[in-house]
């Protein structure tokens, strides 16, 4: 099998285990490529990709752009951090305008859950858009599929497999698209998942997704092989969920002392950007067992794999 | 004009011809004769109603006609056209217009077109100024102007003191108070039913608790204040249970459910289709079944269309930015009829004609000699395409727009006015 089962990458939810394994294989080859002296391949020559970002992003956008350039695609960037872009017409119109200039793929970040699904559905009914491929680069509090792919790829690389591995996702689960996509990806690959954080930041029905729930961060760390520590997303909280960052870091922040108390070494991950001293202390973030920068490197390879496989899947 | 409805099958619980074939002769807006086989006088228009069902005119207790203020979504005129095509002779419109229905003039604006129209509109008149829940409107004066039912429509009455005062104040005129039960803090920013599906979608949920908490609260307030209270658009199993118990205790409580909450569950939200974004939200299969049972057992008194028309600019959007609501007037009876095996035909007519008529303070319907003709003729088998060609509303935000729908209204008669489907 060398084809994905989907036309767009809207979420991990829609992928099969085989899709993810194919993406991993492809990403491994691309990782080898980007470590060569000449890092560029001609795979996506003559493919034009627009990175359309309706929300602020630094690393995801850079990572996508680099992945696109390494594949020799032509790249254009559009960003409008203006959250007052409220009308869907504006979204579809904006994208249609870009597509009218003969763009093949849209990489989109948007603040609304399901915005890429809405876009893909709307485009399917248009002349300019029906062949376009949509890649979700984060949609509100819903999914961030490429982040989950690069996270699981990084664990896979480190541990050889995900089957039976224990992964704790720690922090603000309620507002995190990274957490949701990771849960879906990890489960598809056979890992066990635990979520940990203040109870106000855990969705009430999260255990119905088949994950363990732990309120004590020390117990979560002791349980897991891998701890994926999430950024505390103050900007996405419309309501107060905990009293102070100080208290959060005291009770849920991970530092070297906490890690030293464990009777084993665990892998530490973070999707970035780190709030140093809040969810992760500097000494923990920079420790040897932290693979945070490997994640960043793998991000480029994984995104190359996503774009390559979607571009080569011819529209029906 | 004289009409003879020939060989219709009457569905009107309590009527002597209930579930029997009947001919109805209408002359000058009144029923002149009814019986088994009325001979056809000359100079009369005959409607051959073989295989069609004859109902007492349908009544909707909850529709948003957006007029005044949001006429691009719906007007009283387009709303009437959708209503009559959907078999309704009487419709109560909620006050969430711009401005809200809160003065004598506003009430007259809604009632004003009735004498020249088939579909009779009645206002649900706001109990709080600008629907803000802070200051009472002049309810007695509004009552005198023609308002018979009061409530803040889509705005839940969050203020306990305002609810108590309204219940007390309205007792003088024995008017119905309507509340839409939903705690505004627990439901804040909510987009769909809170449960495993909202978790999967990363979407802020509207918990069942937001509804049941207010129902519990209101039941206590009703015990304290007296009066009568109607819960509009309940959506959960627990709500049905609470209301059933309160009714058993003898409290003067009634309630309704929106047609879409009887048809769909939150599984429909999984593709982020904003046509399924409604308030209260579509909940679980367990809730849906409990609501159906509630109607069947008479715990839920009415099925409402909860007609909420929206233009594409406010509906065809990213899910969380889209407005809540489905248009329902034109399709509600067809969709309700699709549930006849679960609810029972008689109960559907109770819930969509007889009960809402009583709650709105209208005269009891009598399909009898000498009475005003108020009838809906429905062909349960006719399949029709719900499309731009057939749609009467100004809006088409409906999950089944573009599809074929089974069951169509053939004719509606109220007094001297008749609507006949031309399709």
Automatic annotation (TrEMBL), chain A:
Keyword line: Pyrimidine biosynthesis, Transferase
GO MF annotations in UniProt: aspartate carbamoyltransferase activity
Segment forming the signal sequence: none
Pfam families assigned: OTCace, OTCace_N
Enzymatic reactions: carbamoyl phosphate + L-aspartate = N-carbamoyl-L-aspartate + phosphate + H(+)
NCBIfam families: asp_carb_tr, PRK00856.1
Function: Catalyzes the condensation of carbamoyl phosphate and aspartate to form carbamoyl aspartate and inorganic phosphate, the committed step in the de novo pyrimidine nucleotide biosynthesis pathway.
Subunit structure: Heterododecamer (2C3:3R2) of six catalytic PyrB chains organized as two trimers (C3), and six regulatory PyrI chains organized as three dimers (R2).
Protein name: Aspartate carbamoyltransferase
Automatic annotation (TrEMBL), chain B:
Pfam family name, one: DHOase
UniProt domain Dihydroorotase catalytic: residue ranges: 53-239
InterPro entries, per the entry: DHOase, DHOase/Allantoinase_Hydrolase, DHOase_cat, Metal-dep_hydrolase_composite, Metal_Hydrolase
Keyword annotations from UniProtKB, A to Z: Pyrimidine biosynthesis
Lyase found in the keyword field: no
Family annotation (CDD domains): DHOase_IIa
Source superkingdom: Bacteria
PANTHER family given in the database record: ALLANTOINASE (PTHR43668)
Protein name: Dihydroorotase
Organism: Mangrovivirga halotolerans
């Amino acid at each position: 099998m060398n084809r994905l089962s989907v036309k767009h990458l809207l979420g991990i939810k829609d992928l099969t285990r085989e899709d993810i394994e194919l993406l991993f294989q492809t990403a491994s080859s691309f990782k080898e490529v980007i470590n060569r002296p000449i890092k560029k391949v001609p795979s996506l020559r003559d493919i034009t990709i627009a990175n359309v970002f309706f929300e602020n992003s630094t690393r995801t956008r850079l990572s996508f752009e680099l992945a696109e350039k390494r594949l020799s695609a032509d790249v254009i960037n559009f960003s409008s951090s203006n959250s007052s872009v409220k009308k869907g017409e504006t979204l579809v119109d904006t994208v249609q305008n870009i597509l009218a200039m003969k763009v093949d793929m849209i990489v989109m970040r948007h603040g609304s859950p399901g915005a890429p699904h809405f876009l893909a559905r709307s485009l399917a009914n248009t002349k300019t858009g029906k062949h376009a491929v949509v890649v979700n680069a984060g949609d509100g509090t819903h999914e961030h599929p490429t982040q989950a792919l690069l996270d699981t790829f990084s664990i896979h690389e480190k541990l050889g497999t995900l089957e039976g591995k224990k992964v704790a996702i720690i922090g603000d689960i309620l507002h995190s698209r990274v957490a949701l996509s990771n849960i879906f990806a990890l489960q598809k690959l056979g890992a066990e998942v635990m979520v940990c954080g203040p109870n106000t930041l855990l969705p009430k029905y999260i255990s119905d997704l088949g994950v363990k729930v732990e309120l004590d961060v020390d117990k979560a760390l002791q349980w897991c092989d891998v701890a994926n520590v999430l950024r505390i997303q103050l900007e996405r909280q419309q309501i107060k969920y905990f009293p102070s960052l100080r208290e959060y870091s005291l009770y849920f922040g991970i530092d070297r002392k906490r890690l030293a108390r464990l009777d084993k070494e665990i892998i530490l991950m973070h999707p970035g950007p780190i709030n140093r001293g809040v969810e992760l202390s500097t000494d923990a973030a920079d420790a040897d067992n932290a693979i945070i920068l490997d994640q960043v490197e793998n991000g480029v390879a994984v995104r190359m794999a996503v774009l390559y496989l979607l571009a080569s899947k011819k529209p029906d | 004009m004289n009409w003879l409805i020939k060989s219709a099958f009457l569905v009107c619980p309590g009527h002597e011809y209930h579930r029997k074939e009947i001919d109805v002769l209408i002359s000058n807006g009144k029923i002149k004769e009814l019986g088994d086989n009325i001979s056809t006088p000359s100079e009369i228009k005959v409607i051959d109603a073989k295989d069609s069902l004859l109902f007492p005119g349908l009544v909707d207790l909850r529709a948003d006609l957006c007029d005044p203020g949001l006429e691009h979504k719906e007007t009283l005129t387009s709303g009437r056209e959708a209503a009559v095509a959907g078999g309704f002779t009487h419709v109560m419109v909620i006050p969430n217009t711009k401005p809200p229905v809160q003065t004598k003039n506003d009430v007259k604006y809604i009632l004003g077109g009735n004498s020249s129209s088939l579909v009779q509109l009645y206002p649900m008149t706001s109990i709080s100024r600008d629907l803000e829940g802070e200051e009472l409107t002049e309810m007695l004066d509004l009552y005198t102007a023609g308002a018979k039912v009061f409530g803040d429509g889509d705005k839940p009455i969050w203020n306990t003191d305002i609810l108590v005062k309204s219940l007390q104040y309205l007792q003088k005129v024995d008017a119905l108070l309507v509340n839409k039960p939903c705690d505004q803090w627990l439901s804040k920013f909510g987009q769909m039913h809170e449960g495993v599906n909202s978790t999967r979608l990363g979407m802020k949920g509207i918990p069942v608790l937001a509804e049941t908490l207010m129902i519990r609260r209101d039941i206590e307030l009703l015990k304290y204040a007296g009066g009568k209270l109607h819960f509009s658009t309940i959506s959960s199993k627990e709500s049905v249970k609470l209301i059933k118990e309160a009714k058993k205790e003898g409290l003067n409580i009634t309630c309704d459910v929106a047609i879409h909450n009887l048809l769909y569950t939150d599984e429909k939200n999984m593709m982020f289709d904003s046509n399924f974004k409604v308030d209260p939200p579509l909940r679980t299969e367990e809730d849906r079944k409990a609501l159906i049972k509630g109607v069947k057992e008479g715990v839920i008194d009415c099925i409402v269309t909860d007609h909420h028309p929206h233009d594409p600019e406010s509906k065809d959007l990213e899910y969380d930015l889209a407005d809540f609501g489905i248009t329902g007037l034109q399709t509600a009876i067809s969709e309700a009829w699709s549930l006849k095996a679960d609810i029972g035909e008689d109960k559907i007519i109770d819930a969509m004609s007889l009960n809402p008529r009583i709650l709105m303070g209208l005269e009891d319907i009598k399909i009898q000699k000498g009475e005003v003709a108020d009838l809906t003729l429905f062909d349960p088998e006719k399949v029709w395409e719900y499309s731009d060609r057939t749609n009467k509303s100004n809006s088409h935000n409906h999950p089944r727009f573009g599809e074929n729908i089974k069951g169509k209204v053939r004719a509606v008669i109220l007094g001297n006015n008749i609507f006949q489907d031309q399709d």
